[in-house]
Design brief:
It is a single chain. By secondary structure, the chain is α+β, with helices and mostly antiparallel strands. It is 25% helix and 24% strand. The protein is built from eleven helices and 15 strands. It has helices at 58-64, 78-83, 86-92, 113-116, 119-123, 139-147, 168-175, 179-188, 236-239, 322-340, 343-354; strands at residues 20-21, 45-48, 51-53, 69-72, 98-103, 133-137, 155-161, 194-202, 207-212, 215-223, 226-231, 271-277, 282-285, 290-295, 302-310. The strands form two sheets. Strands 3-4-13-10-15-8-7-5-6 form a nine-stranded mixed beta sheet. Strand 3, helix 1 (58-64) and strand 4 (69-72) form a beta-alpha-beta unit.
Length: 360
């Protein structure tokens, strides 16, 4: 049961033309909260995601249009921004085991454990070695490793569901989030129910490689700064997702740091947008939008809370929106896999359907 289940609820871009050239956000006059040297270098065509005050009515225009926007100066996670530093979390998160991912490098690539051993993959000899280890760890041990980390050590990333099992002070802070605001957006845009809230505690430089989710997401930054690179669903073919049966389903096969253009030539043309979010910022990540997230280099640990909502009822209006096309693509691929029972047969069948019959 998620904590917020007891809280009263109020019930595309076809061609990516984004917003404004990338610029460094300033605070307190000329003082910058981060500088470009803290960002990893990628050969990407990126523009800046708009930043709008939480009372700005244009926010709803972005959400309705399935476009990302950074919501500023809200009270959505204000109690956490005020208190949830590492020391507070260590004292109050609870002493039972917490979910921690361990990596030999800075990349924490998601994988679906169920698909490692699923019927189709296993019977066809799909080889897969998880890129990270998933362990249960006491919060005291996790914080000690984070604070004492040195170059060459394993990296850690805590990803914990916020449930009633966490400490009482965390629950009290959580209940005081601005639920009227987030529930109001849920109702206004006809989203489905809130499915989960996750707490992320990352080391500086930790990276979650590019992937997309099948849920609407309010990504609320609590402590530290994160860089968020997003791509619309229309860029699907440029990002080369793994097949649906693969444990890395919904992940891009392209390594942004060392892209193989001979294998992934369309990646040269990918276009996206980005934002660096800091304490109090809430980034709206629309359903099916690709996102690549990383804690800034030399920026210290980061703390984030997300709000995942199911998508609302699907109303088909023509022409279809890009995220609807991605959903249809996934369903076709799943159906063919279920019928053919061999992942190697899916691609040839799709090619035989298209080549010589349909043109771009």
């Amino acid at each position: 049961m998620i904590i917020s289940s007891n809280i009263k609820r109020h019930k595309s871009l076809s061609k990516p033309s984004f917003y404004a050239p990338r610029r460094n956000r300033k605070m307190d006059g000329d003082k910058k909260p981060w500088d470009p040297s803290q960002l990893r270098k990628y050969d990407l065509n990126l523009e800046e995601i708009p930043r709008l005050h939480y009372k700005d009515s244009k926010i709803d225009e972005f959400i309705k249009g399935n476009k990302p926007v950074v919501i500023t100066e809200s009270n959505v996670v204000k109690p956490a921004v005020q208190r949830w530093n590492l020391d507070y979390l260590e004292r109050n998160l609870g002493h039972s085991g917490h979910t921690v991912f361990v990596s030999q490098n800075h990349k924490f690539k998601y994988y679906d454990e169920k698909k490692i051993y699923n019927r189709v993959s296993n019977s066809k000899g799909v080889e897969f070695t998880p890129p990270t280890k998933k362990v249960e760890m006491r919060i005291e041990d996790f914080m000690k490793k984070v604070k004492e980390w040195k170059k060459g050590d394993e990296r850690l990333y805590l990803q914990q569901s916020l449930t009633t099992t966490v400490g009482n002070n965390i629950v009290e802070d959580f209940v005081k989030f601005d639920w009227d605001y987030v529930n109001g957006k849920q109702t206004k845009h006809n989203w489905g129910p809130l499915t989960s809230n996750l707490l992320f505690v990352a080391m500086e430089g930790n990276q979650t490689p590019c992937h997309y989710d099948e849920q609407e997401n309010f990504f609320a930054q609590v402590q530290g700064y994160k860089r968020c690179i997003l791509f619309p669903p229309s860029q699907f073919e440029c990002l080369y997702p793994y097949p649906v049966y693969h444990p890395h389903d919904r992940q891009s096969m392209v390594d942004f740091e060392r892209p193989d253009y001979s294998k992934f030539p369309k990646f040269k043309n990918v276009r996206g947008c980005e934002a660096v979010v800091g304490p109090g910022d809430v980034l709206y990540i629309p359903i099916y939008w690709w996102h690549h997230i990383e804690s800034l280099l030399r920026g210290g640990p980061t703390v984030t809370v997300n709000f995942w909502y199911k998508g609302g009822p699907s109303t088909l209006e023509y022409p279809l929106k890009d995220h609807q096309k991605v959903s249809i693509t996934r369903n076709v691929e799943k159906m063919l896999l279920e019928v053919l029972q061999d992942p190697k047969e899916v691609g040839p069948l799709l090619r035989s359907m298209v080549l010589g019959r349909y043109t771009e």
